[in-house]
What we know:
The chain has a domain at 6-65 and 96-157 and 239-320: FAD/NAD(P)-binding domain. It is built from 12 helices and 15 strands. It has helices at residues 6-17, 42-50, 54-58, 82-89, 98-112, 143-149, 206-212, 220-226, 258-261, 270-288, 293-322, 327-334; strands at 22-26, 37-40, 62-63, 68-70, 76-79, 94-97, 115-119, 134-136, 154-167, 175-178, 183-190, 193-199, 233-241, 248-249, 253-255. The strands form 4 sheets. A 7-stranded mixed β-sheet has the order 5-4-10-11-12-9-13, with helices on both faces. A 3-stranded antiparallel β-sheet has the order 2-6-3. Helix 1 packs parallel to helix 5 (98-112) and helix 1 runs parallel beside helix 10 (270-288).
Amino acid sequence: MAGAGVGGLATAIGLRRAGWTVTVLERRAALERYGTAFGLHPTAQTALDRLGLGDALRARAVPYRDARIRRPDGTVLAALPLERIERRAGRPELLISRPYLIDALLAELDRLGGVRIGYGRPLTDSRALDADLVVGADGINSVVRTAYFGTRSGPRPVGTVAWIGTAGFETAVHGETWGDGRFFGMTPVEPGRTNWYATVPAATTVREVREAFAGWHDPVPRILAETDPATWIRYEIRHLHPALPSFVADGRVALVGDAAHAMTPNLGQGACTALLDAEALTRAVAAAGPGGLPGALRAYDAERRRSAQRVALCSRTLHRFMTGRRPALRDALVALLPG
């Protein structure tokens, strides 16, 4: 197993539950407790239930309800479809802090035993791995993907830089505000804190980000003013392009998470799709039994590839729509959405 992120750790849990002995190789010397909030769609919550983690995570997650899409002056354009999701699934969308999710996955691995995590073990050629099953969960720059699928599909920038952080107070205003080529989002994450994310064309400093949103509706300027700049995270948004023709190779190799289908963050589905991958892969492997690994990997690919790639395409399309330079037309279209 390459990679000890959400997808890799969840896959290790599923494989261990199926009776496999698992070794996880992680290039970092230790897992970093960075990041803000992950959204957990009801389907991802079901995957966590099947992995035996649902109750532990729901104890720390918060429901995501009553969120709106707004203009910079605060005018509401539309409601996010959270109520409809909850009504159909019988449970709400949840938000959970990334550090807690990582810690919960590590705690479950420790409880299960039979899993070794080798930190500070960067892969230079995954073909040297002597294992019955090789899982590439090593992110958008996956060494496993390059070794088995070549370099045709790889990280592609979309021309946008994102900033994320956590403010030390709660706000009752949740959702996203869309401006001219930029947007700002706010969600709950845990009591007393607010998760936020933003994109600004060409902004390279904290000061420039604050200035870009200075005239926006409350509490956007306050959130940026009261979040410690030392905790802000800046990253270039990239996605995997073109889409892979398969998530599996050689009858013993499978990709999960960003290694298979890295996407823009606009739908908030990156962690969800990684968890769905992990559960589907380990379920297929567990059902196949000895000697059935090639068929199990084909079943995994058939279940997950088109679905995950569809989500990635929708997220990329939404990114273009949100950051378009014709906000009047975009806002008029958004206002036609139901609810």
